[in-house]
């Protein structure tokens, strides 16, 4: 991202409405493309509510975009727009189903039920959005060490005690400031120091290098904490 665009995002996130309008105009065609793709049809601004949903989602994405995360805005924005469209599709489907299934219920009861269901769907979609964003963040961090997230399940040892020893090695690395800094700053595992700290052999540490690093990354970044039970 250019410094000019970075400044535009910063200004928008700090309340500059003119900067926000510029960003919305810039990404208007992007919104139309994402909405058309998700709806699998051509859309018109004057007729299709999905485009309005997309613009609202774009505005939300501008506010919550973290430029330091290393993720392109279009990648993050696409995720937010898609999730908001899912919310919209589900709420529309729910309204139609409520009308058909419970024609004798009062209008107030129907509205209350739709609102409750919409809030539940929104919460689930938001949780899924956050998880998707965190996985993307984790992938970015792993790539620095030439690790593909998809290879991790295949290198996890089957024996529980071996996996526990690797977890302990990752924890030892994170706790030791010098080893953690070496991993973060140099992009390499401090094999010699880690062997001395854990009692593991050099052969084991080097063989399980990628897995130890993957576990350490989770422990070093509090934002990735919810992935620790499922990523590896």
Structure description:
- The protein is mostly helical.
- It has two domains: 3-143, no CATH class; 149-227, no CATH class.
- The chain is 74% helix and 0% strand.
- It has twelve helices and no strands.
- The protein has helices at residues 3-13, 17-26, 28-39, 49-64, 73-101, 107-143, 152-155, 160-175, 177-186, 191-198, 202-207, 209-220.
- The longest helix has 37 residues, at 107-143.
- The protein is elongated and about 70 Å long.
- It starts with a helix and ends in a 12-residue tail after the last helix.
What share of residues are in beta strands?
under 5%
- Overall 3D form: elongated
Overall radius of gyration: 23 Å
The class by helix and strand makeup works out as: mainly alpha
How many β-strand stretches? 0
Mean pLDDT, to the nearest integer, reads 79
Can you give me a brief rundown of this structure?
With 232 residues, the chain is an all-alpha fold. It has helices at 3-13, 17-26, 28-39, 49-64, 73-101, 107-143, 152-155, 160-175, 177-186, 191-198, 202-207, 209-220.
What's the layout of helices and strands?
Layout: H1 3-13, H2 17-26, H3 28-39, H4 49-64, H5 73-101, H6 107-143, H7 152-155, H8 160-175, H9 177-186, H10 191-198, H11 202-207, H12 209-220
Helix pairs in contact: 1-2, 3-4, 3-5, 4-5, 5-6, 8-12
Identify the notable features of this structure and list them briefly:
mainly alpha, 0% strand, 12 helices, 74% helix, single chain
């Amino acid at each position: 991202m250019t410094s000019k665009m970075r400044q535009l995002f910063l200004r928008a996130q700090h309340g500059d409405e003119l900067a926000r309008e510029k960003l919305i105009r810039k990404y208007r065609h992007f919104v139309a493309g994402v909405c058309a793709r998700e709806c699998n049809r051509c859309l018109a601004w004057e007729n299709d509510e999905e485009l309005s949903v997309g613009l609202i989602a774009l505005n939300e994405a501008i506010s919550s975009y973290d430029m330091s995360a290393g993720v392109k805005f279009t990648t993050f924005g696409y995720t937010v727009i898609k999730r908001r469209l899912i919310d919209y599709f589900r709420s529309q489907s729910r309204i139609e189903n409520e009308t058909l299934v419970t024609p004798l219920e009062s209008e107030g009861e129907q509205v209350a039920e739709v609102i409750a269901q919409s809030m539940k769907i929104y919460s689930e979609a938001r949780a899924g959005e956050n998880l998707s964003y965190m996985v993307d963040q984790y992938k970015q961090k792993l790539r620095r060490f030439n690790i593909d997230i998809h290879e991790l399940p295949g290198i996890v040892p089957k024996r529980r005690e071996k996996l526990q020893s690797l977890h302990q090695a990752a924890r030892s690395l994170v706790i030791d400031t010098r080893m953690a800094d070496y991993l973060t700053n140099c992009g390499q595992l401090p094999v010699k120091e880690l062997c001395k700290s854990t009692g593991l052999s050099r052969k084991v540490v080097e063989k399980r290098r990628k897995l130890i690093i993957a576990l350490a990354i989770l422990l070093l970044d509090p934002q990735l904490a919810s992935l620790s039970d499922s990523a590896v």
